[in-house]
Amino acid sequence: MTKASQPAPPNLPAEWSTGTPVLDDEEEWWQLDLAGETFEGEAAGLEVEQSRLTRVRLGGVRLERATFVDCALHHCDLANLNADRCGLRRVELVECRGTGMVYIGGALRDVTLRDCRLDLTTWRATTFTKSAFVGCDLRRADFVGADLRGVLFERCDLTAAQFSNAKLEGARFVDCDLSGLGGVASLAGATVRADDLVVLTELLAGALGITVER
C-alpha cells in the first residue's frame, strides 16, 4: 500500500538574481524574487526554478508544459489559470487564490498547498506524488481520473468534490468535510478519520442504493 509521506520543501537560494521575467515560450525564470507583478497571455515551455513569487497575479494565464522547481508561491492570484501538462516539484503554495484553476494531465511531486482557495478547480488526469492539501477550500473540485495515491488531505473542505475513477490508495483524509463527495467508491484503500465516517457511510449507502432509516 502507498503511504502518505511529508513533501520535501523547496530549495530556495540564499541570494536572488536580477533578471527581468517575461511570460513567453521557452523563457527561463531563475532565482527570481518577484512581488506584486501581473502577467497576462500564454506561454509554452516556461521554466521557473528556485524562485519566490509573492502576490504575483497569474489569473487567466494559459501555460503549456511549464515547470516549476524549488519555488514558493505566497498570496498569489491563480484564479482561472489554465495549466496543460505542467509540472511542479518541491513547490509550496500558501494562501493562494486559485478559484476555477484548470490543471490537466500534469504532475506534482513534493508539493504542499496550504490555506489556499481552490474551489471549482480541475485536476483531471494529474499525478500527485508526496503531496499535501492542508486547510484548503476544495469545494466542487474535480479530481476525475487523478492519481492521488499517498496524498494527504487535512482540514480541507471537499464539499461536492468529484473523485470518480481516481486512484486513492494510501491517501489520508484528516478532519475534512466530505459532504456530497462524488465518486466515493474510488476511496478504496484510503484512510479516513473516524469523525468523518458518518458522512462517508451515508455517501456509500447512497452509491449502493441503500436506504438508511432514521
From TrEMBL:
Gene3D superfamilies: E3 ubiquitin-protein ligase SopA
Spans annotated as Disordered: 1-20
This protein's name: Pentapeptide repeat-containing protein
Organism: Hamadaea flava
